[in-house]
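ARCHIVE CARD
Drawer: 12
Card no.: 0347
Subject: one protein chain, sequence and derived structure
Cross-reference: see card 0346
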Amino acid sequence: MENNTYPQRPILIVDDERNILKSYELAFLSYGINNVICCSDGRDAIKILREKEIDIVLLDLIMPHISGEDILKQIIAEFPGTSVVMVTGLGKIDTAVDCMRNGASDYLLKPIKPEVLIGRIKHCLELKELERENFKLKSTILASTLRKPEAFSEIVTYDKQMVAIFQYCEAIGESRHPVLITGETGVGKELFARAIHKLSGKTGQFVAVNIAGFDDNLLSDTLFGHRRGAFTGAMDNRPGMIEKAANGTLFLDEIGDMPLTSQVKLLRLLQEKEYAPLGSDVNKTSDARIVLATNRSLDYLGKNKEFRKDLYFRISTHHVNIPPLRERKNDIKPILDHFIKKVSAELGRKDPNYHPELITRLKSYNFPGNVRELEAMVCDAISNHKSKMLSMKIFMSHIQRNSEDQINISDAASEPTENNPSGIFSMLQELPTLKGLSNYLIQETLKRTVGNQSAAAIILGITPQALSARLKKISKSQ
């Protein structure tokens, strides 16, 4: 007998108002989703999760007896693979956003239109299906070499170098020492940091902080928090990210941009497991695992006295270096297939086919932006495609544009042109300051990408967050 239950694993809806539960259930039924469990008492939610295999929880934020926030914390701790969509009213948007920072997948605002509800839930279901497919493929290939292949489920690869890195990550997974992850922009350093967190056995949160553009005060406040009255506007005590990462993992991205004064504080945290919030003379202790990442050469920065050597030695006890995409070109096809499926699901479209020649063309390209650049290409292509066959034009236009940028860079740097009207690189003129040169390069790249910051960040070889921080500095200086 055919099983018409969909999805295979039930969706759990938690809300204390029975009429709302019924309305959700009817909305799901009208779209063919008939495997639903309704729970009107939040205290029973965890019990249901322990008894049933559930992928998705639709969780109301405000309920009697126990709040949605508290239930979320229990779910993230005990069922980290479960997606949680928070439901809240207009007055609680900030709380819902905090819930997402703490592990929720999404949030919905009441009143919820049925089509919006179904769209978000179907998106979650498609991503879960994609995760399972990726896990099955990886398990088949890696099970004989890895003890916990599921920790790497977010990383698409069949490359031997990468498998060797997976094995190294497993070996250091439960170590108490910090881990340094290096590699070019876009190779997936945060994905490896998350994998190491999964391997650590720690039950706390994975907390990520991109520190590009932070000065010492802002970084200290972000990492260590502050006491009331520590500075103007500090009306209450605020915990830092290190406290949120208790018994978990703190991931510091763009560590090469950390100010020297902040490096001293980080070194103390690593050596003594102690830190002091701003405005406090009482030290706190931390048991968080520290994972750091950079696309810059810390050895070079150390020689130029921009990065402390003692800190470099401390953080490089375990070093993971991720190879660029151009060194593992056999990964291009599976990564392309992965992103096509993922982006199509996000846009609610059917997966398009593509001409085999596309793989050949992509393999001939060096991908300075690595996996992130390939993802941007796929997003652009699928957003604009209008037939069953994915057009190669967008891919080739992107490749040609970036190739021309690289080829013409010496010409653009030597004489005035339409794109370089001031001739700031001319040997016949006074050289600009490094700051001025950096500002010019950012502004010129934004012109060429017609203001697209994501594309500009890829071309510049920095993260979008780092570009945003530098734009703010330029704006303040003008």
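Annotation on reverse: The radius of gyration is 25 Å. Residues 173 and 293 are 16 Å apart (CA to CA).
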